[in-house]
């Protein structure tokens, strides 16, 4: 499911993204070997043996959160997590999206604002620009996110 999405996004945004940079000797530089697929993780939790599957979800998140990111790669990750139990019987299974963004890339407030610009409350919005696809040309769009207090 996630593979087609990653390929689609990669084709649309062929220019080096703002989130395709690495810190090299105190300067941000384009990652010459940027691989968008490295940043996406798709997992299915083991079948839950209790009501919600939150135990398995929290165990996964705890493990991933404690893992140090590779500083030779852009410092962000996107996790699509399937297999969370339905809220009630007959309802569909749920999923979670977990983002890991290093503080050197964006502080908490900037990250939230960035995500707000990437998401929509309009159910008819088919495609918005995901946060990892902002290019340097779109940097002016981000000025308000990173400078607004």
Structural description of this entry:
There is one protein chain. This protein has 149 residues and is an alpha+beta fold. The protein is built from 4 helices and 5 strands. It has a 3-stranded mixed sheet with strand order 3-4-5, with helices on one face. Residues 137-149 have low confidence and may be disordered.
What does the secondary structure layout of this molecule look like, with pairings?
Elements: H1 2-12, E1 21-24, E2 27-30, E3 40-44, H2 54-66, E4 76-84, E5 94-101, H3 108-118, H4 139-147
Parallel strand pairs: 3-4
Antiparallel strand pairs: 1-2, 4-5
Question: What keyword list fits this structure?
Answer:
single chain; 149 residues; alpha+beta; 4 helices
Q: How would you concisely characterize the structure shown here?
A:
With 149 residues, the protein is an alpha+beta fold.
Task: Show unreliable segments.
Answer: 137-149
Helix content: 25-40%
Question: How do the SSEs run, as a string of H and E?
Answer: HEEEHEEHH
Record the strand order, biggest sheet.
3-4-5
Tally of strands: 5
What composes the largest sheet? 3 strands, mixed
């Amino acid at each position: 499911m996630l593979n087609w999405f990653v390929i689609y996004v990669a084709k649309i945004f062929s220019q080096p993204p703002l989130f395709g940079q690495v810190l090299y000797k105190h300067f941000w530089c384009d990652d010459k070997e940027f691989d968008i697929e490295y940043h996406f993780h798709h997992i299915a939790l083991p079948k839950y043996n209790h009501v919600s599957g939150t135990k398995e979800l929290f165990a996964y998140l705890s493990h991933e959160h404690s893992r140090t990111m590779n500083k030779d790669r852009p410092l962000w990750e996107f996790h699509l997590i399937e297999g969370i139990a339905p809220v009630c019987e007959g309802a569909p299974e749920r999923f979670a999206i977990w983002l890991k963004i290093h503080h050197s890339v964006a502080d908490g407030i900037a990250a939230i604002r960035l995500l707000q610009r990437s998401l929509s409350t309009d159910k008819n919005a088919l495609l918005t620009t995901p946060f990892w696809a902002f290019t340097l040309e779109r940097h002016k769009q981000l000025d308000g996110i990173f400078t607004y207090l």
